[in-house]
Amino acid sequence: MSIDGQLPPKARLLRAAAELLANSGGSAVSTRQITQQAGVTAPTLYHHFGDKEGLFDAVVAAGFDEYVAGERDFAPSGQPLEDIRRMWDNHVEFGLKQPELYLVMFGNIRPESRPAIVADAEALMEEMFNKAAVSGQLNVPPKEAARSILAANVGVTLMLIAEKVPERNLELSAMTRDAMIFAVSTEQARDNGSDDSGKSSVVVAAIALNAALQASHSDQLSSSELKLFLEWLHRISTSSTS
Amino acid sequence: MSIDGQLPPKARLLRAAAELLANSGGSAVSTRQITQQAGVTAPTLYHHFGDKEGLFDAVVAAGFDEYVAGERDFAPSGQPLEDIRRMWDNHVEFGLKQPELYLVMFGNIRPESRPAIVADAEALMEEMFNKAAVSGQLNVPPKEAARSILAANVGVTLMLIAEKVPERNLELSAMTRDAMIFAVSTEQARDNGSDDSGKSSVVVAAIALNAALQASHSDQLSSSELKLFLEWLHRISTSSTS
DNA sequence: GCAGTTCATATAGCGTTGCTATAGGTGCTA
DNA sequence: TAGCACCTATAGCAACGCTATATGAACTGC
Asked: What is the pTM of this model?
């Protein structure tokens, strides 16, 4: 199962490490696995990459190029905030598509040691926020906005990765994304008081009622009634959120 | 350097693990270190805790108690959203005070394996959001709000931990916190005379929901369902919930 | 008081990990 | 051909998580 062919050992090591990482399923990947799959022996790895972390950094660098490509490849829409929204989604998508690589990049956290890649990602996002700031759409400095959004973006992505696939709910991402972007922006489209105010008041009321019922051990309703009742409330409160 | 004294080996192991973890400075802690410092041998560890992760889980459980104590120990201000704000700050403070322990609790992420502790923390926060929902201060379901806020809270805390101490800027936390809380809240609750919040809100919410349902041609429910539903709402809203 | 049982700890060692001291091969320039 | 970098392999070290096995201690039933 080794990677034969004409590639030089260094490239074979990179490729083997990336493949094993992608298929590891969360368990650790050993240097012996990597060198065996690459068809080389241990000293070759350490000659080219110094140590295991060096190899992983190199893999991450390649992964980051892919990440950056995803972050840049859409045409600027002229609306920086819309671009940032897409940046967020690209970030989450990248994390869910390659969770192991993402975890090496963003999940390998140790106190007071900030991976260079985080700074790079932050710079990428700050660059985008600068455009928003130029057009007066920001109410906080771009740097702060980028740091804040990236932190939330990483937090959401990590939480989604930790969840089992069938339970992953991208609403979490969309909601957090919009909340954060709105918070740093100057747009005031919050309360239009227009048509959907009726709808949203249903939602608010249903949510409040639902919570109140769960809080008080309501003996107004039998348990089976209550169950159905709550199910309806849930249907209402989740169906009409737009 | 071993922990002598009268404590049973199990407690000594827990204590040694917690101490070593707190002083590890980010590097890994081995079972040999732990057993040596505890003054026992390896099989004792595995007899009591199964494996290394079991021991760490036990340490985390103790750490979580401390975390929960921090999250609960302030008196409810009567303003749930204000309490949530303090919850957020407690979370960050806990993470910065004991980064290694925090990383074991919230930073040990693997795909599709969600640590039980995350679910616990989420439940704790959801509980608080339920109170906010009761007083009609939420515009999203409490569960979604809790997940979203917790994700952002963890993301911010991890990012702060990764930064070198002198560069840590708590503005990042405050800003993200307020952004998230604002986003899930119904900002209208500001000028409420807070009198009619609480238990009677069941009635208020039920009435509001009732009116809203009748106003909109709700096609979420069938007509017979709606009839029964409204009957229940009537029962609830005309009786006093304890 | 004594055998039987269970719990708790120790001795010794297995297999794997990341990594390296040393040496040998390969291809280039002179 | 000689010399010199560069690259790779053999073999093995120390540390890791973990365990098969055995021994001691404490309690139970008769």
From this structure: 0.78
